[in-house]
Amino acid sequence: MAEDINLTLPDEDQERPDRLAGVRKDEVVWEHQRRYEQSKRRYLGEDALKDTGSAVVCWLTRNDEHVAKTVADLPLLAQLTSAANDTAIPERLLEMLPNRPGGPWTPDIGTESADLPAREPSAADHLSGFFEAMGFTEDDDRRVMLARQFSQLVEQHNRHETAEDLLRRFDPPRPPAPETGAEPAPDPEPPADTV
Hints:
This protein is mostly helical.
């Protein structure tokens, strides 16, 4: 029979359970944050930004005193829901979009082809505008880095074509560099005649 037993762990052995306890706590916090983010994405994607009408209703429930501003923001809401769902803006809302040469949502097509219909901006066009607004020039490495990250995020949402378009536009594959100093391979010897 034993009484008053004391167990003492060396510092390095005590450090392991302490680190594991810290990792478990971090994991619980991360899991809660991830579930919150997933819930928020699901709410935005399946409810609030499902279509322009849903976005308007959602906006009005929070800002019912700003009806006139909501009506004025319809083009913005249409563009936002279109971008969120990777779809074209409905035709009935296209006439509300700014449609002036050099405007934010139409390409600069010049005067000779001004009678062509304006092309709907792609996700890559929007990302390019974002980069310009951030002051990232064409040769800024942050453009490529961020485009890759956006492409990965978009890919996770099964928008494969959009993800590929972002990479094509901002991170195109580079041709292999020619080998320098390599001598051409010698011609193979002709096969010996067999008699």
